[in-house]
Amino acid sequence: MDIATTPPTERRRIALAAVKELGPQRTEQAVLKVRCPASHTVAAVYKTSAGTVVVTASGPGGRGNRDREAVGHHGDKLDSQFVDTLEATQFEDDAIPGGCACGPRSLSRKKLQDAVATHAHVVNLT
Ligand SMILES: [Zn+2]
Question: Where on the tree of life does the source sit, at the highest rank (predicted)?
């Protein structure tokens, strides 16, 4: 995939499909996890066939909450989460929407890229 010429919506669709390919045990394969001060996982980063992909959970009251309840216990929650390649075009916002039980959070794409580049395994938010 050529990030520079792929529209963001198409890029996210490809990223979602690539994360699904990793299967239900993917959390064990995360190269980076982002945690809030209460140790909730706010985001996880995976290496996929579409490149490095970030998956963020959405906080309480965030978009997709109602959809999530409709998903069965064994269903995949990915469709209600924000999934995107970590790499994006220079024209896009640095902020990635995320959240946990503590509330919504905005993550910096650049910070996550730096963390992956330096082989950090965990980013703790303050
Ligand atoms: Zn939290």
Answer: Bacteria
**Cα(36) to centroid(ligand 1), Å:** 5
- Using the mean position of ligand 1's atoms as its centre, give its distance from the Cα of residue 78 in Å: 19
Distance between Cα 6 and ligand 1 center (Å): 33
Q: How far is the CA of 85 from the centre of ligand 1 (A)?
A: 23
Expressed as residue numbers, the domain containing 95 is 8-124
pLDDT tens over the chain, length 126 residues? 899 999 999 999 999 999 999 998 998 899 999 999 999 999 999 999 999 999 998 766 544 444 444 444 445 678 778 999 999 998 899 999 999 999 999 999 999 999 999 999 999 999
Is 114 among the domain residues? yes
How far does residue 62's CA lie from ligand 1's centre (Å)?
14
- 59 alpha carbon – ligand 1 mean position (Å): 9
Q: Are 16 and 29 in contact (CB under 8 A)?
A: no
Q: Do the domain assignments include residue 54?
A: yes
With H, G, I as helix, E, B as strand and everything else as coil, classify residue 4. coil
Question: Which pair of tokens denotes residue 60?
Answer: 């309480």
84: β partners: 54
Tokens of 125: 């938010």
